[in-house]
Amino acid sequence: MTEAAINNTMGCETLGSQSDDPETKNEQPIFVGLPQSPYHEAIFVFVVCAAQLMTQAGLSLSIAPLQDISASFNTTPKELSWASAAYSLTVGSFIFVSGRLGDIYGHRLLFIVGFLWFGLWSILGGFSVWSNQRFFDCCRAFQGIGPALLLPNAVAILGRAYPPGRCKGMVFCLFGAVAPGGFTLGATFSSLLAQRVWWPWGYWIFGITCFIFAILGYVSIPYVRQKKPREDLSTFERLDTYGAITGVSGLILINFAWNQAAVAGWAVPYTYALLIVGILIMGLFLFIESKAAYPLLPRSVLVGETGWVLGCIAAGWSSFGVVVFYYYNILEDLDGNSGLLVTAKWAGASASGACAAVITGLLLGRISASVIMFFAMLAFSAGQALLASMPIGQIYWANAFVIMLITPWGM
């Protein structure tokens, strides 16, 4: 619900794209059009939505089979928590600049490169079974750069393929609806392969699938010739290089500090020192953006309705990651369920998310997007509250079942 309403409200453009671009500020939105036949359009939508599907499936690759992976590295699930955190860290940090890269070099190109990168590091993550946990964590971190390239460029591709209207709203609802299904799909196959075959096969098969989607993207997404850049605007300025360096660095340090605090504790000096440095760098980033000719973060993005929407996105998707991570860990570590059994208990989230998407698509245009956003945030909040209050050993049909049903309605 959240993402569909946001994309429909904000015009489906990536941060720092056309709205503040000196080359396009006074131009009308660009709609590149769709493949001619409904068959080709269906393939086009499926391939672009696969960016969201595979992003959430990639998140589940280390959450569902956590027990099997930790056993192969002779470590504990807690010590292996960085495998999930590293993936989310790079997705959240590098997504900051990938939309701008798509504006300059082409959203289609960045979409294809994102899947190729995603596939490469997924396969290397499987080969880390012959190395060590640190290499596995690094593979997960580099793996997350793939979704960071995919998501904003997928949004831009869909946003420029459909003019404003109900059809556009339904397509973006579909884009959001595949998220819970993607997590369930990835969790099912990764836990099944971990229990019946060997956990690296989940990464190898996932990587091959990413390569297939890269080929399908090359074939199905219409090619749009990039505009020739203005001669008085260098690539360095268009990329907002100083802003990109400080923004990504600040986000990485802040994310690292918060995640490492759960492992090492706040009493360790480097934990809070990195947090302080990260906050200072983000302050420097905001200063650079206020002076940049072509800011990576548009000046209007942190105020008014847009700032409120982005705050909801950040809070909502953060809470989703918290819910699925602790949902699996509580039911596996404390209740003694296998990863495959927990996935079966979470599987209904796919159907719940699909229902939420359809209903949201029907409501868009009839009620305010802010009302939809309000109920989406309520769904995320209810999922968090139920998870926090779930007692160990409780019957599945109580908190765990309701969490699975409610949380996808925020997405």
Walk me through this protein's architecture.
This protein is an all-alpha fold and 411 residues long. It folds into 2 domains: 2-223 and 292-410, Up-down Bundle (Growth Hormone, Chain: A), CATH 1.20.1250; 241-291. It has 17 helices and no strands. Mean pLDDT is 82; it is low at 1-30.
CATH architecture of the largest domain: Up-down Bundle
* CA-atom Rg in angstroms: 21 Å
**What class do helices, strands and sheet pairing give?**
mainly alpha
The H-level CATH homologous superfamily of the largest domain, spelled out, is MFS general substrate transporter like domains
Strand content: under 5%
Show unreliable segments.
1-30
Q: Could you estimate the helical fraction of the residues in percent?
A: over 70%
Could you tell me the mean pLDDT? 82
The 3D shape can be described as globular
Count the E strands.
Answer: 0
Cα end-to-end separation? 5 Å
Number of domains: 2
Provide a count of the helices. Answer: 17
* CATH domain class name of the largest domain: Mainly Alpha
Reported by name, the CATH topology of the largest domain is Growth Hormone, Chain: A
The succession of helices and strands, N to C, reads HHHHHHHHHHHHHHHHH
Largest sheet: number of strands, sense, barrel closure: none
Oligomer: single chain
